[in-house]
Structures are given as structure tokens and as C-alpha cells.
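Reopening this ticket.

The earlier resolution said the output was attached, but the attachment link was broken on my side. Pasting everything inline this time so it's all in one place.
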Amino acid sequence: MARLAMLIDLKACVGCAACSVACKMENEVPVGGSRLWIREREMGTFPNLTVEYRPEQCAHCENPPCVPVCPTGATYQNEEGLVLVDYHKCIACSACVAACPYDARFISKAGYVEKCTFCAHRLARNEEPACVTTCPTYARVFGDLDDPDSDINKAIQAAGQGHVLRPELGLKPKVIYVNPPSKQGLTRKEAQL
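Inline output:
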């Protein structure tokens, strides 16, 4: 089976938020909710300032802490490693929201938990996630980590290394960052993810 993952090239990201808008439109995310957001951080000192834009979303962890805490089985991991929510089983108890170290979930007004799905409905049609196809700078790459010839593995190899957020937790997140302008906030993780 595939190990689907998202790569984000921080050097290429310009913070335009096209990915976030595409996600909201594609998934009909309610006002006030967000499955994907952009963190912005100023670095340096005047006059040598730069800004880092870091898109964040559900990391679809290989060892997701949100799955075992769900009392109804609404949060689950499918055979491709995507961490998903069955809205019909969700009772909005917020256990998974509290368990997520990436703050990637929210309770929708409809009464269930929402989060990034890597656009599972698009993947079922052999399409890439909306955020990937919309990015004007091609900062996002989606693919199978188990396929050595996949675009995502080629991008990690070209960058020399990949970084993940909070690797010390042992969750094995599958949102991988390359080319960070600074290492602050990211811990080095070799590309053997």
C-alpha cells in the first residue's frame, strides 16, 4: 500500500494563501474554520529582514494520537495512511482535538470534527489535493513515500533533507518541509521518513 505524504518547499512558498482558499472552496469549509493555514514569522534584524511562510495542516501521522482517543471510532486511519473522520460517527467530544499536537482539528457548526483529508475524494478520482494543484509557485508536492521514483521522494532528495514538525513525539508526520530559511521551529529529520 501507499504511504501518502505532502511536501512543502518553504523557499518556494510566498504566503499567498491560495492553498488555504482552494481548500476552503473544495471542501466547503464553514466560515470560521480552517483545515489549512499559513504561519508567518519575521526573521533577522533591520535592514536584513526576511519572512518565513509555513503552511500547516493535519500531518496524517503514521502514529496518530487522535485515533486511539476517539470513543466512537469516528477518527480512523485508512489503508493508505490517511487519518480521516467519519462524520456520521463523530459526537464532537473534542478528544481528538485535544490529542492533536498540531492544532489541526476544529469542531464545525454542523456538530462534528473537521480537518485536512488530503482531499481524499479527489485522490479517489486520481487527482491531487486542491492545495497542490492551486499553488502558483509549485511549493507543494504530493505522493507516495514508498515509491522511490515518486515526485515527493525526488523533491526530498533534491533538497538534501526533509524536516517535520515535532519529530520528538514519534508520531511520524507525513507533512514534510524542505528548504527552511531557518531551522528554528523545525528539527532536522533525515529524508528516510
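Reporter confirms the inline version is readable. Helices lie at 18-27, 95-99, 120-123, 130-134, 151-159. The CA atoms of residues 27 and 151 lie 25 Å apart.
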